[in-house]
Structures are given as structure tokens and as C-alpha cells.
Amino acid sequence: NAGVTQTPKFQVLKTGQSMTLQCAQDMNHNSMYWYRQDPGMGLRLIYYSASEGTTDKGEVPNGYNVSRLNKREFSLRLESAAPSQTSVYFCASIIGDVGELFFGEGSRLTVL
Amino acid sequence: GEDVEQSLFLSVREGDSSVINCTYTDSSSTYLYWYKQEPGAGLQLLTYIFSNMDMKQDQRLTVLLNKKDKHLSLRIADTQTGDSAIYFCAENIMNYGGSQGNLIFGKGTKLSVKP
User: Which residue from A48, A98, A103 is facing B102, i.e. has the nearest CB?
Assistant: First the structure.
């Protein structure tokens, strides 16, 4: 099925460990985004990539890095995980002038 | 900074109308959105309204926009149990770099529909 695919869906890390969340879209969208969702906080933008080869910080970028590997793929890396990064992470891509975001199913990360 | 506020919970009976309210702060937003999130899933765009409109109707959904008061509402007519979900209000903040997907989301309103 066409859409946004995120891996892994679940992950448990220990403080200080590193990991990369992968995201791929097959809709030929130019722009891709990483949001995090915390209880009672809504969604907050971490990083985005308006086009292949460019990345920019969002509202909460500290502790994260991103790579726009090609037009399809946009990865999010935690170099040294902290308990405050326990969250559900959503990747999204966008099409059209309206700005409709297509979201993946989310990656649930727990940092102990 | 920019902020979007909405009530956290709403409970209605099946067949009634639901009204979810939202206030926002950035008057320069081009579009305002309502997203729906079902348990364990990502968000899906439910509807949107362009900032120069004051009303938009789409089947059971009616969106009202009051720009003067920076107030947005979503009315769901004949609410069904399948409408139970979390509904997020969001506004587009172009000054984050001009990307259309840079949205400020509210905290979400959990709609519970009782049979």
C-alpha cells in the first residue's frame, strides 16, 4: 500500500544508547517531517526536510539529528538517548498547496 | 510564541452533534486544519479551511472560523461510535521556514461517543 512507512514500530533503549528511526514514503513527496507526540502535549516538530538535500530544525531539535538520504527516505537519529526522549515519533510527508500531511503509524520509543 | 488551545475531553451520545472548539494565536496562518487520530494510529487529515473563509461544510462535518476571535470549531452531525477518536486542531506557521507542513498542533480533544 502506498504511504509512509516507519521502522521500528517499537523500541526500548537504555540511557546513552543510540538508534536511528527510519522513514520512507512512496508518494514522490518533496517535503518530509519528524514529529514527536507526548501525552498532554500534542505533536511537536523536531526536524523537517523541505526537499532532497535540505534539512531544518523545528520546535524541539535538541538531542536529534536527521538525514535526508534521498527523496524517499528521511531518518531520525538519537545519538545518546535520554529518558526525556521517551515518546511516540511520527514521520510525515506532504503534497499539494493545502499542506495535507500524510503520517506514518508511529514509532514508540521508551528510554530507560 | 504561537499556541493552539483546545479542550481535552468531550463526551456525547450517539446521534447527537459534537462540537469541538479551538483557539489559535497566529493570525497569519494560511490554513487551519482538523486531524483525527484513532487508537494506535497516525493522524489523518479530516478537513481544513482556508483563512479567508468563515465556514466550510463537508458531509457531516462543518468547520466555522472566526478570525476576529481566532476561534475555530468542528461540528460533527449525527455522531457515531466510529467517530470516537482524538481530534487535533492545527495551524500552519509559515515563518518556520516557509514549509507547508510546519504545523502547530493543539493538545487534542478526546471524543467519546456513547451508544
Answer: A48
